[in-house]
Amino acid sequence: MANLKTLWKNRKQIFEGVTNSIIRDEYVEDVSKLRMEVCNGCSSKGDECVVIGTQPCCNECGCSLLFKTRALSTECPLGKWKALMSEEEEDKLDNLE
After folding, report:
1. Which end of the chain has less Cβ packing within 10 Å, N or C?
2. pLDDT tens-digit series, residues 12-23
3. Would you place residue 94 in the very low, low, confident or very high pLDDT band (cuts 50, 70, 90)?
4. Sign of torsion over alpha carbons 46, 52, 55, 59
């Protein structure tokens, strides 16, 4: 399971997922739904979250699945689904006005 150091390293992706869970977009929600279908059938889905109270989580990385599946620049640690954009592309998108 991940620790706080790993979470800090992935903070940009986590923030992306949190933001996308608050400011909903139909495309992101569709991606999240498809990813959650994969996660729901995975034996690594569980409650071993690094941040308490954010269940369900991925027991491989400790991330909340509600946030992780909404971060387009992240991927499944087991390779079951891929990132749809790089962190650099996400940064460029964030900087558009």
Report:
1. C
2. 888 888 888 888
3. low
4. negative
Confidence at 1, pLDDT banded by 50, 70, 90: low
The letter for the amino acid at 72 is L
Look up residue 95 and give its two tokens.
Answer: 């900087």
Residue 74 exposure: Cα atoms within 13 Å on the Cβ side: 29
pTM of structure: 0.80
- Do residues 75 and 81 touch, judged by C-beta distance below 8 A? yes
* Cα distance between residue 24 and residue 12, in whole Å: 18
Q: Which amino acid is at 82?
A: K
